[in-house]
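Hi Y.,

Following your request, here is the sequence exactly as I used it, all 563 residues.
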Amino acid sequence: FILMYAMYGPWLVLLTMSMSLGKYMCQNRTTNFRPNIVMVMSDAFDGRLTFDPGSRVVQLPYLNYLRELGTVFLNAYTNSPICCPSRAAMWSGRFAHLTESWNNYKCLDPNATTWMDMLQQNGYNTLSVGKLDYTSGSHSVSNRVEAWTRDVPFLLRQEGRPVTDLVGDASTTRVMTKDWRTTGVATQWIRHKAAALAQPFALYLGLNLPHPYVTDSLGPNAGGSTFRTSPYWLEKVMPELISVPKWLPLSDMHPVDYYSTFTKNCSGNFTEQEVRKIRAFYYAMCAETDAMLGQVISALRDTDLLDTTVLLFTSDHGDLAMEHRQFYKMSMFEGSSHVPLLIMGPGVKSGLRLSQPVSLVDIYPTVLEMAGVAVPGGLSGHSLLPLLSQSAARPTRPRPDWVLSEYHGCNANASTYMLREGRWKYITYADGLSVPPQLFDLTVDKEELHNVASKFPDVCRHLDKLLRSAVDYPQVSQAIRLYNKQQFAAWRKSLGANYTQVIANLRWHLDWQEDVENNEKAIDEWLMTSGFSSEKLKLSCVRPSTSPGPSFLPSRTSIPGGV
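Below is the corresponding structure, written out as tokens. Let me know if you'd prefer a different format.
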């Protein structure tokens, strides 16, 4: 069946599936039928690759399969563009500020009730395998210290420079072996356990791809700055369709974006070839991710479970892949905040492209409604079922026409809030006054290079009012500043005499050691301040000058300021 799709395209398969899907759509309306539910959640997958024109740059046959036989959301967003807070929002159905998911170290309590717990309590046989990452206490010491000290007015590189790594040969299909093993656990469970169950089941598969790999050469504290793949997966990429993103000059960047670029070690020079190569490797990693999704689809099809299973594919966030002179996430730009969301299965319309803005908190009520489980109150999300199926009941509360995302972690030196409504993306920071906002018209500025906040003050006021109706963001920002200081002070105290050595050897160690005395002094002074009084001063400290900052090794035929 999957081979038939790959050979003959979606329309023949649509014809063969339409009768069975129609049968279950009717059955769902007239009986107590409860579908199986399978979610595949990747890490750092750019949602724009799941529909045209982005889907043309790399072969993703199984995502294309989901798109043709199910529904794709064209404007799906993360609620926080970093791993743990994003997943906390997805599993809890609540915005990050409501669960106080401030960074990769501070997220949900281990006993928090997820939608998977709700399904299990209501008769579903459940299994979660692979990357979960939604509870507090994980990730590296460097990661949490960088988040706590983001208000300190120093500028230190926290990541390795993004690089590529080609491994294996044209027959090497399994590069991310950990993900392949996890996928194998999930598919074997489908074949040997789920197929024999009398009750419906729910399966969650969490993948690490296409998140960049840890750069081992940078030591035990290194972050993930290596884009690794094999010739086999690079063959799936259309090199002629790889775009080279435009960059603003460093001197024209918004101060928070410049801080992100610098701390991600991207303020040095890059050749156009380097940028193309990083993007090609990232797309190839997405192709490998797609193949793992294909394994799940094949297991469901081979066991005759596909027609009775709702299958979802999404991601915690995207990856900028050198857009805006950055890689990684931690940004409200589209490459980082726009996530894939595709759903297929009984009762779900086929071939539907929905432009309504949605976000990961919507998954919680959607899954419960599909399973016939009462949706609890207090959720931030809204069920997607009324958009997916004609048989869905009228929603009890109206769906807003906007989505909210927020970010409070490392690599951004101010709490960031994004509201997407219609053509507009509004981004504001901290208390809404001390840091200038950004406004992008995505209908004419898809690359988000033209901040038009000063040209459309009425639009900014309207969107800011909407944002404040969802979150008192100046108060939240202030609470996080206090939290960061308290956590850092407690951590420093716990180290005692070892503090000086430990803080000097985190991921920023190269830059830290250039001026140890002033860096320690900056932290001491930061701990003595309060409120937003130093915000403008802090941002002015990181404004770019004619020099990009500390010295970098130049690249051959380097292109200063952009590509």
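The first helix runs from residue 2 to 8.

Thanks again,
Q.
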